[in-house]
Amino acid sequence: MVFNISKDDEGKRLDNFLKFEKGFSTRLIKKITKNDCVFINGKIAWADDILKEGDIVEILLKENKEQDIMPEDIPIDIVYEDEDILVVNKPPFMVVHPTKSHQSGTLANGVMNYFNKTKQNCIVRLVNRLDRDTSGLVIIAKSQFAHQAMAKMFEKNKVKKEYIAIVKGKMEGKGTVDLPIDRPSLDSVKRCVIEGGQRAITHYEVIGSSEDVSIVKLILETGRTHQIRVHLSHIGHPILGDELYGEKSNIIQRQALHAFRLTFNKLRGEDLVVCTANIPQDMLEILKKYNLDFQEDTYE
């Protein structure tokens, strides 16, 4: 990574510049300076070096290739890629990362295979995750820096997270659900709206409805586990096919929830990145059944 120091950054310590201007964690700054991986104008730099206008700061990010994820020849739908991140459209019924019960066939196995085939010296660092039965956009960071920087953007709500859901019943209008979410007990998989839980904010707008189902766009202001599923169920419109927060459906074999769009700034530069994942076929079939239309260009 290369940074050209402007007049605005003159006089700053190197470590403060990297932390507050470029999103490096304190831990990573210590690691790269200790291992002689930072250079100013071609010379090894120290954390307390003072920057001057015109300085060129170069950082060598060395990846640790040790990761127990076997590459598998699984097709992945790449939506966007740059030097720092990979964004893929995860299909429904796919686990994002190996677990005890899902040792193979995961998104991470496919991504590792892609990194190997394209000779990218990366391990799989998931920035966000989706439930097995939720489809849509997942971001994978290619370095420790990218992972920390993207995680910070999510934490500060600088990533716009948009979803599409098909819910039970006729739902109308738009609004915001601002209700806390937590587990009712430590051993519970299910979450619920509960006093004293973590604050959770979901904005919604109905973009089509029939007497039986409605299609809803949602924007997450927070990112709690199962947030959309809990909030929609709480207001009386559980997601179609969501057996945990609603009931089984005979027209879809999963919850009809899709992570449709992510909008954020590139980590290097200020270019805006807009990633969109097409609505999967099983959800499109439901919309067709109920004569509901979804046009991506009208979804703003």
Automatic annotation (TrEMBL):
Reactions catalysed, as given in the entry: a uridine in RNA = a pseudouridine in RNA
A biological-process GO annotation: enzyme-directed rRNA pseudouridine synthesis
Enzyme Commission (EC) number: 5.4.99.-
Catalytic EC class: isomerase
Pfam families with a match to the protein in the record: PseudoU_synth_2 (PF00849)
An example molecular function term from Gene Ontology annotations: RNA binding
Keywords: Isomerase, RNA-binding
Domain RNA-binding S4, residue spans: 12-75
Alphabetical list of PROSITE patterns matching this protein: PSI_RLU, S4
Active site: D131
Free-text function comment from the UniProt entry: Responsible for synthesis of pseudouridine from uracil.
UniProt xrefs under PANTHER family: MITOCHONDRIAL RNA PSEUDOURIDINE SYNTHASE, RIBOSOMAL LARGE SUBUNIT PSEUDOURIDINE SYNTHASE D
Protein family (similarity comment): Belongs to the pseudouridine synthase RluA family.
Name recorded for this polypeptide: Pseudouridine synthase
